[in-house]
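Hey L., structure's done. Input below.
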Amino acid sequence: MRKATFILICLSGLILTACDKDHNVFFKKGNKFAGLPASILKDTTTVQFEETEFKFGTINEGDKVEHIFKLKNTGTKPLIIANAWGSCGCTVPEFAKEPIPPGTESQVKVTFNSTGKKGEQHKSVTMQMNTIKHNEEVFLSGTVTPKADKK
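Output:
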């Protein structure tokens, strides 16, 4: 019995010490820091977008819209985009995986697939960054004309 208790205590200790505090992430649901490594939360910088909203007008259902959102690291530390996601599966961002040096420009390409969408559309892309706000957003909006039903 003592041997089993000793082994359990040793395993628990290994599990607890195996976590490197510089790589811990916050997993609490709804936490704006969720998914951001603690190491980038301390080295914040600033970002400036050329625009944060793109209006694509009227398109036909099934069309894809691509837009490039240009951004610039206006701070003194490298800008890190830790993650980015669309408000639904029809809105997909592509972004730089490597740090963006101070004073350097980069871009986020967003593709909206209108298949199965009809009417007014308002989509967003959220980016987790090492900025003061930690979450930056860009938006796409427009109207999707439905396909005519074939009978």
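Confidence is low (pLDDT under 50) at residues 16-29. Strands lie at 47-49, 53-60, 64-73, 81-86, 91-95, 105-113, 119-129, 135-145.

-- N.
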